Known about the structure:
This protein is α/β, with parallel strands linked by helices and 347 residues long. It is built from 16 helices and eleven strands. Helices cover 40% and strands 16% of the residues. The strands form two sheets. Strands 1, 2, 3, 4, 6, 7, 8, 9 and 11 form a nine-stranded mixed β-sheet that branches. Strands 5-10 form a two-stranded parallel sheet. α3 links the parallel β1 (35-38) and β2 (62-65).
Amino acid sequence: MRFTTKICFAALSTLALAACGSGGGSSSSSRDVVRVVGSSTVYPFATAVAEQLAQSGGKAPVIESTGTGAGIKLFCAGVGAAHPDIADASRRMKASEYELCKKNGVTEVVEVQVGLDGIAFAEANAGPGMALTPEDVYKALAANPFGKPNTAKTWQDVNPALPAIPILVYGPPTTSGTRDALAELILTKGCETDPAMKALKKTDEGAHKKVCTGVREDGAYVDAGENDNLIVQKISQNPKAIGVFGFSFLEENPDSLKGITMSGVTPTYQTISDFTYPGARPLYIYVKKAHLNAIKGLADYVGQWAKAWGPEGYLKQKGMVIAPDDVRAKSAEIVKTMAVLDPAELK
């Protein structure tokens, strides 16, 4: 079936998409609407772009919040109407994910950085005023901090300067790019404050990853699913709880939430845009080039992003942190030419 998919796109016209997508040649599987899957963090921005396209006379794409990892998996499953056209991502695609794409005939992937965001730690406005470091977070949430079972029950067990309240953190699931960013930008940084853990990466990368990014499963960390609004609701109602989600959700709820400092830096638009906040990260969309001429409205939807991500664009009003000028210029050129991603750049 993968071979058939490749032949369809190499030899036939736009109408071939329906046959390829169905696997049986039926035109019933054709689509006249763009399908987007992926990051819950990018979801509100992708939805805003879809709504703007609809207001301009186009057909609004269908946007699904599946989480970055799950979205890329769906995106990479194949070419044809049965598969998504775009994957939203709150982290960069992994080399292993690109290999899955390649294996399934998705050989031309266009990567566009659309903006910036941060993994924000937040508490209710009535919360105790927590001030954390990556080491604090690691000691609180790791299943086996520095290789030993986690016995910490309260934040004070982690750091005597913190309040004696139970550790309760609502955060993203393993399918989420926000969870990946938490692991890479915060947990690993906290883990590597121990020289032995930092050295472990060179001798046993698998063991390093397990001890540095494995999260406890005893109730201290609660997987809230791909629904950042649910995390907002949970911590708004519990002043002793902490939430982890995209910065835009913090910025949209100032009446109920406040940001928690990380190494003395508060998550704000400015600290994320200049990367002084430890949890700052880029946001992406991945476009299936083989679908550009086959799915009506796909090129228009991608083009609409470039009109929205600037300092005067409407995505800033939605909470997106605008990328630097040079990044936006490069992204605009990629949208214009649809230059494909060089997989050698991926890790």
